[in-house]
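Sequence only, no structure available. Ideas?
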Amino acid sequence: MKNNKNDIFINVETMYLQNESDPDDNKFYFLYTISIKNKGDVGAKLLSRHWIIEDSNGKIQDVKGEGVIGEQPHITPGNEFEYTSGAMIETSFGTMKGTYQMIDDNNNQFNADIPEFVLSIPRVIH
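Reply:
I predicted one. Tokens follow.
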């Protein structure tokens, strides 16, 4: 049996929102745009998400919820779904990672891993 999670590929781009952030109040806002591409031969629906967001002080936010941006997209083979959302952390550097809980058109549930990515204000990483 094919491992379905290997058929879902996830790409992430991030952007620091300087105008929305308030470093003096330990509020750093970031946007992230995620592309979820179905490279398999069976359609799949995104049911829910689980995020682990960690700032550089070690503070962890554990976020779970249905769908993404109010949607539970069905991604057919060869297509992708893209969305933008945001996160706020208390430091200028942090990381996010997680999983999407999905179900394919054959009623097989599986997790698609979201690889860890960095939230960082510009020029913090050298």
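The domain at 4-120 is CATH 2.60.40.1470 (Immunoglobulin-like).
Hope that gets you unstuck.
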